[in-house]
Amino acid sequence: xxxxxxxxxxxxxxxxxxxxxxxxxxxxxxxxxxxxxxxxxxxxxxxxxxxxxxxxxxxxxxxxxxxxxxxxxxxxxxxxxxxxxxxxxxxxxxxxxxxxxxxxxxxxxxxxxxxxxxxxxxxxxxxxxxxxxxxxxxxxxxxxxxxxxxxxxxxxxxxxxxxxxxxxxxxxxxxxxxxxxxxxxxxxxxxxxxxxxxxxxxxxxxxxxxxxxxxxxxxxxxxxxxxxxxxxxxxxxxxxxxxxxxxxxxxxxxxxxxxxxxxxxxxxxxxxxxxxxxxxxxxxxxxxxxxxxxxxxxxxxxxxxxxxxxxxxxxxxxxxxxxxxxxxxxxxxxxxxxxxxxxxxxxxxxxxxxxxxxxxxxxxxxxxxxxxxx
Length: 374
What we know:
The protein is mainly alpha-helical. Helix content is 57%, strand content 5%. Helix 3 runs antiparallel to helix 4 and helix 7 runs antiparallel to helix 8. It is elongated.
């Protein structure tokens, strides 16, 4: 029988409640009474870490082994409230067992912390929010639980996390963590909850993309865009927010396969709109950045690159400048190589279509491969 908290039934009828692993102090291996966080981001029981640092004169983090220059202990009030709530739920039980938990009920407690309206008017609200979102990133709730909680109250959690990303502009780490949670949410919620995202939301996730010190943040943002762009007016908002030029600049410098694939998927989606194609063509490095990834990333990268270029060149048949630029950056050579390569048949068909868009212009150019001339 499934329970919100895991339990172990002993033969004598007594119950062992399983303690969530992050309630346990890494030093004492006991449930924390007064959790505090040190400068490395690790959390310990106050008494244990004080002994470690000040009685035993250790100067490195017990977990990361990183030397500490800042010995301040920051109370983790959110985690403390969770531990207290857990204790109250299991006050009748005399025994516990330390193991990995079912996190669903703990997630619900955290979500309530994020949505507490009375905290929004206090000076501690930012701290509480940061703690709650940080802990949410550590949990691994089931898809069913995440979907249920996220869709509750007409998607209040989604609205709260989006608000965090547009409100706490000076706290990049908090916004990145909110993006990581939203990534997981958008993978499981119904389509209706992906519509109606505000323009400011797209502006601010683009700011996360710009910060190349956070690969996890960038990946989360790209995953969010892939999930939500097909709904409502999200494409228009992302284009207006400046998504395309940022992606072009990042794509030109990126070599990691999966990241390139995600960027190309997003760009291809945005270029389904006329304003997206206009933004792509207006960037001086747009054509070159995409062409450079053909036959260098993966079959997925090839397909998305060819599809993107097909959309752009199909809808600018009256513009000789785009065709000329495409040829100058080696586009025709790459297209011909794709047709002759081991790419899948659909990708090859899109490549052949590109050949026909400006064939008369390209056929007269010495840059056009002679084997394809009429």
